[in-house]
Design goal:
binds magnesium ion, alpha/beta, about 220 residues, binds 3,4-dihydroxybenzoic acid, binds S-adenosyl-L-homocysteine, 7 strands, 8 helices, seven-stranded mixed sheet
């Protein structure tokens, strides 16, 4: 049996489903032009995030990890004109590119980028009394347990939590001692499984991003 061509099939899906429009493509290209790593979600994954926002009826969305704002654009479109996305980004240069991309996509009124270490900006959001209907966790994996705990603290019963990168080419299965990211993802999945308020699925994916996946949880 020949190996399945995951990338070509993803490209077929993108083509026939018209998944990535000019603004999303421009955001991805602007990130590459600014020498950011090409680690934004795939086009299909961005669309799934948008659909989850719509299915959940989410109006207020929190994203941890902005990069060039590719996923932020998808989330901001999905919340609609009366919704809001708050996206947290550590690097000012990333936030600057992301804000330009959000403006170019016409969603800058719906999406705000807060600069700082997410553990600090999350505490600021709590002080402001903000509550979110959906949280997308996609930043430094070492802090994933803390980010899921923050998502619960800033959520409500019914809030959806999505966590990116739960497979990492299988490294999460048996993390090497030096692979703190894979270990942290592993530990986060154990924590989610044990958490009395979380109901969680972990989905492996293949495609333009290789072998990875995401977890989806709902807060009880
Ligand atoms: N969600 C984006 C990709 C995010 S990549 C998309 O799919 O389009 C991860 C981002 O998290 C990077 O921009 C990185 O700078 C940021 N990041 C890393 N550590 C962080 C931290 N402690 N607080 C906030 N952002 C962080
Ligand atoms: C990588 C991919 C991601 O989606 C991410 O958020 C961080 C890192 C990676 O492939 O290294
Ligand atoms: Mg990711």
């Amino acid at each position: 049996m020949t190996a399945p061509d995951w990338v070509s099939l993803d490209e077929l899906f993108d083509r026939v489903l018209h998944t990535e429009d000019d603004a999303l493509r421009a955001a991805r290209e602007a990130g590459a032009a600014a020498d950011m790593p090409a680690i934004e979600v795939s086009a299909q994954h961005a669309k799934l995030l948008a659909l989850l926002v719509k299915i959940a009826g989410a109006r207020r969305v929190l994203e941890i990890g902005t990069l060039a704002g590719y996923s932020t654009i998808a989330l901001a479109r999905a919340v609609g004109p009366n919704g809001a996305v708050v996206s947290l980004e550590h690097k000012p240069s990333h936030a600057e590119v992301a804000r330009r991309n959000l403006e170019h996509a016409g969603v800058d009124a719906q999406a705000e980028v807060l600069v700082g270490a997410a553990l600090d900006t999350l505490a600021q959001l709590q002080q402001r009394g903000e509550v979110f209907d959906l949280v997308f966790v996609d930043a430094d994996k070492e802090n994933n347990i803390a980010y899921v705990e923050w998502a619960i603290a800033l959520g409500r019963p019914g809030t959806v939590i999505v966590v990116d990168n739960i497979a990492r080419n299988g490294r999460v299965l048996d993390p090497k001692p030096a692979d703190q990211q894979a270990q942290a993802v592993h530990d986060m999945l154990v924590m989610m499984g044990a958490h009395p308020r979380l109901d969680t699925a972990a989905i492996q994916t293949v495609g333009t991003k290789g072998w990875d996946g995401f977890a989806v949880a709902v807060i009880a």
